[in-house]
Amino acid sequence: MIAAPEIPTDFNLLQESETHFSSDTDFEDIEGKNQKQGKGKTCKKGKKGPGEKSKGGNGGGKPSSGPNRMNGHHQQNGVENMMLFEVVKMGKSAMQSVVDDWIEAYKHDRDIALLDLINFFIQCSGCKGVVTAEMFRHMQNSEIIRKMTEEFDEDSGDYPLTMAGPQWKKFKSSFCEFIGVLVRQCQYSIIYDEYMMDTVISLLTGLSDSQVRAFRHTSTLAAMKLMTALVNVALNLSINMDNTQRQYEAERNKMIGKRANERLELLLQKRKELQENQDEIENMMNAIFKGVFVHRYRDAIAEIRAICIEEIGIWMKMYSDAFLNDSYLKYVGWTMHDKQGEVRLKCLTALQGLYYNKELNSKLELFTSRFKDRIVSMTLDKEYDVAVQAIKLLTLVLQSSEEVLTAEDCENVYHLVYSAHRPVAVAAGEFLYKKLFSRRDPEEDGIMKRRGRQSPNANLVKTLVFFFLESELHEHAAYLVDSMWDCATELLKDWECMNSLLLEEPLSGEEALTDRQESALIEIMLCTIRQAAECHPPVGRGTGKRVLTAKEKKTQLDDRTKITELFAVALPQLLAKYSVDAEKVTNLLQLPQYFDLEIYTTGRLEKHLDALLRQIRNIVEKHTDTDVLEACSKTYHALCNEEFTIFNRVDISRSQLIDELADKFNRLLEDFLQEGEEPDEDDAYQVLSTLKRITAFHNAHDLSKWDLFACNYKLLKTGIENGDMPEQAFTILCDILMIFSHQIMSGGRDMLEPLVYTPDSSLQSELLSFILDHVFIEQDDDNNSADGQQEDEASKIEALHKRRNLLAAFCKLIVYTVVEMNTAADIFKQYMKYYNDYGDIIKETMSKTRQIDKIQCAKTLILSLQQLFNEMIQENGYNFDRSSSTFSGIKELARRFALTFGLDQLKTREAIAMLHKDGIEFAFKEPNPQGESHPPLNLAFLDILSEFSSKLLRQDKRTVYVYLEKFMTFQMSLRREDVWLPLMSYRNSLLAGGDDDTMSVISGISSRGSTVRSKKSKPSTGKRKVVEGMQLALTEESSSSDSMWLSREQTLHTPVMMQTPQLTSTIMREPKRLRPEDSFMSVYPMQTEHHQTPLDYNRRGTSLMEDDEEPIVEDVMMSSEGRIEDLNEGMDFDTMDIDLPPSKNRRERTELKPDFFDPASIMDESVGLI
User: Fold this and answer.
1) Structural domain count, the chain
2) Is residue 189 part of a domain?
3) Which residues 6+ apart lie within 8 Å of 544 measured at CB?
4) Do the domain assignments include residue 945?
5) I want to staple 120 with a disulfide (CB 3.0 to 4.6 A). Which of 84, 367, 494, 988 is the partner?
6) Is residue 704 exposed (0-12), middle (13-18) or buried (19+ Cβ within 10 Å)?
7) How far apart are CA 417 and CA 424, in angstroms?
8) Bias regions of kind Basic residues — which residues (predicted)?
9) Is 254 part of a structural domain of the chain?
10) Buried b (16+ CB within 10 A) or exposed e, 607-639
11) pTM across the whole model
């Protein structure tokens, strides 16, 4: 059980007095029991502590006789039926009638009614305990709470506010509604009786201080909703006081003869009573604010902190004269640094309600200047919802005063229109539109009805183009358009204006668009047309196509009609004007994809269709750019729709064009392949350009009737004979071997076994030789073009991309066991030398091969080192310098290889042992011709092999050492010359840590599990058997011959069926342009959270935060530039008393107080986290 500590009684709220109902209450004073005596005169004296209950059991009336009754339900043995909780939980009854019933019960016997209300809060917390009448009369609040804590069900962490299910989803709203209605119905009398409210506030304050989360959460919510209801009451009192004051001033200003003295007395009495009521409300609100809010707004639970911030925002918005000042705004400002997104979100939504009202701007000036930078930084919050609300808040700040945000602040928001997350981008788009596009000059009012270039949108379109170009993200026009689509639809759909800016000459005094600006405008225009026709965000912005509503479908059809009617006429003109510009033409040719082709017939626009087809034909003849030709092909494909009557017209035009291209290609190819003549570059260019045009149409159209295979086969055969296409042939061969490998039988397709083809050793050698000759080459060897000039940087990158594809194709054959794994040795040995170019591919290949066969992979690694060692011997001879860079490079490569085995020595035990075995055999393989007194020729290889000694288990080191001694003679062990140093160092590496073998294995096994064990836990017998089994096997292994080493080596491994790989030849085509989501995310990555040093929030007072809880406040920005500057000082502060303002007629606007945002001046010991 969790026992709550005794709560100090900080609030002296209860007073033994009789309840009084004023004349304006909604309820009658039953039996005349409750009479007001000196209301307001003695209320500040003689108040009891929160634990001292009034002994007037029924509020001064006669005690009830017989069984106690509450709302018509029996109460026996002091334990009452929780009817109030049940009614609120079901939520079926009208809340006002529930409250009215309780008020009637309170009038009859206030102690029993209060007991029901107390148990209501206890049961709403999920506690099964019941506060009895005896406990209520004789126990302090702290004792009652401790008793309820002991009866709390600690096996379940759920309570009504957190429970799932439809019944509990509505409970929170019903709970909050009950509290609001209770205060509203009691606002004229009962809340001033200094009994009901004092008891409730005292109870909620104590519960909010509990260590039980359910009590703390429920009571904080109740207290905050109670405070909100009291704020509403205080606001009504303020309004009534102002009205009364006005009436009094008006009556007093009358002439003496017409002045009604009795009315003046009544008004003075009413104003006095209202002032007394307001003082009472102030006391209640101060008690809740100091007793609950200032502690719980920093609670360890995020939901509790969020409740506090949400409610204080309501107070400031509802009663701004009293609460909208720096004394309360500071809490919102500090909490914007909270580590939980839901709390930061509540801060922003609270501020939005304040900034939305422009009349409150003057009260927010200091807060804005102090916390503006934090709000701007929150636009990059790791929680997208928070980022969206931060941008919306800045939009409201912008509308209230444009001078507040600097140009740098605005730029931080501008670039978010390119965000991949659509809500963030849309919010940024609205900010951008409000800042740059929503202002209209007064001079434009007279030209509102003008269209085209003279329309008011013309300057706005230019502004959009300028912004797009200055953003330097030219491939993301679709993202920019989508961001502004909701707020600037009228502007973005003004295609007539855009068309006029492109076709018409500039007006006198108007500056014409530059070529770059025209290109940007065409791209933006294309994106707006695509968005209107498709009605969904660009790729990477949406979760999929949604179902359009009837209204959206009608808008889509209307837009397509408008687009077709305008651009069916304008597009041929635009193509004619920009026919030589590849970029502009490529974008313009995409427009027909969004046409309603039926309009060509219904609108009698056939002549414009003919003009379009002529322009497309001319563009095909002029351009050889692949993008332009593919755009022409797609346009023909879009227009050649058999459903429309224009099909025949377009089909004839397409056939004529392809006829000409095919005839031209056959003629040029025949001349090109004539024997005895050397073709020049012009002929080759003509053949290539014509073939590119045919290829573009072949991708989208059926060209089988033109019989292009024969002529293309001639060209291909000639290229093969001349050896002009080795890379393409290699890639295709790798893909064919992959297709017809044993992988073809995966998935239960054994019937395809006859199709399996395994390359022989000669073919594997040829493939490997090709890789070594064409991939692992020096950069300078591949940098010279045919004319001997240096290629530019883009060409180098393209060449590297092709070489990487070749290497990837061969490595896939290794990974999928199509070729022998040992062929990878020639690849692995290049790991260090070509790390920058191919390091990722080689490392991944190592990882995959190790998953297939750890031992064979280890043998391949040692083989690669042996090959490098032999190459060094061939170059430098056996008397090489072991300090040379070549030998050091081999040792470094061995060290890198050793690191790839990881930390789990048990998993790689056999592989490492086999690696050492092969290394030892290689080192002693070549005896020295001069005799045994001289070291073997490859002995220096042991120096390289020692890099792997650290990966051996301790008992395995002894086994390997025994195996090493088999190759050593007695004279070798006595040698100490420098040439024998590799042997000595390798022996020492095996002898190091040779003791305590058993502990080594046990620690190796246990390292994968938990390091914390119970004192009573027993050692696992299973693990002990594993260890003993390994030791026995190694003992037998060391005492036996080489049969053990060879048996594992000779084990056949079944080829592993892995996922079918992607064919390399399909990605050997020219790389496509990056999609918006690809390139954008590389520019604006959403980084992970960077925690700064947490601030000490608990320097005073007791903390509710568990030991494993993180600090509440920290920097949650995704940008490392975000700093917490407002919280670097200590968090000690003085809690301000709630002081409701005097009536508006008697006061003037006060100046802002000193800087309450300075944390050093606003906290004291009473605000610690309790």
Assistant:
1) 1
2) no
3) none
4) yes
5) 84
6) exposed
7) 7
8) 36-48
9) no
10) ebbebbbebbbebbeebbbbbbbbbbbbbbbbb
11) 0.66
